[in-house]
Amino acid sequence: MQVSRGSAVAVAGGAAVAAVLGWIAIRPTEPRPVAAGSPAVRAPAVVPEPTRTQRVRTVNGRRQPPVVRAPESASGRYRTVPGGDPAPRGPGRTVRYLVEVERGLPFDPEEFAAAVHATLTDPRGWGERFQRVARGPVEIRVSLSSPALARSRCLPLDVGLSLSCWQHGRAVINADRWGSGAPSYGRDLATYREYVISHEVGHGLGHGHTTCPRRGAPAPVMVQQTKSLYGCRPNPWPHRTARIDR
């Protein structure tokens, strides 16, 4: 095919332009600023506000543990918390006990065991000398349990999925209550935890339920305070009661 000189020049010129454009297309370039609102602009990373479970709360002058929502059921098997804690010095009989936590619950077993021992050995407590051990023989087992396991372990008592109990040598602590407390204690989860340990272990020591003596009085620890205060004020201790604002 014949090509005229003018056509050849045009073709050559077009090839040169194409080559230049191709070089421009593949040359690394600096990113260009894009107008705000353009789809190419990424929104700045947003750091979420701390959730309720992450905030450090202070209620009644006490630093509160985080609220934790426990699952309705977990593995159904307990794990004994290893190690132990000595009985405090002083009068009173020694009570050997162990702590166990159902596998699969979102709680640290060692932290739970430490909270239990601090409550049982508090001067406002029952007065026995509690010694935590990792194996029997023991008088009491304190068992953190999912609501489903608590319901099973508490039979023939009917605790549903929301209550704790004393049954068959165990203070069965409902993990949902341990994680979120009870309306009777308001936002004071730390104090409610002391109450539920004191109350259920109190059953293990032979104490039965009692009633509110008069409106406005501190509730005896063996009142079923998780259900209601019955006109009393919340109180987690067998002795030396203290006012708690809800």
UniProtKB/TrEMBL annotation:
Pfam families: DUF3152. The lineage of its organism: Bacteria, Bacillati, Actinomycetota, Actinomycetes, Streptosporangiales. Residues 66-229 form the DUF3152 domain. It comes from Actinocorallia longicatena. Coiled coil: none annotated. Residues 58-92 are annotated as: Disordered. Residues 82-92 have a biased composition (Low complexity). This is DUF3152 domain-containing protein. SUPFAM superfamilies: Metalloproteases ('zincins'), catalytic domain (SSF55486). It comes from the Bacteria.
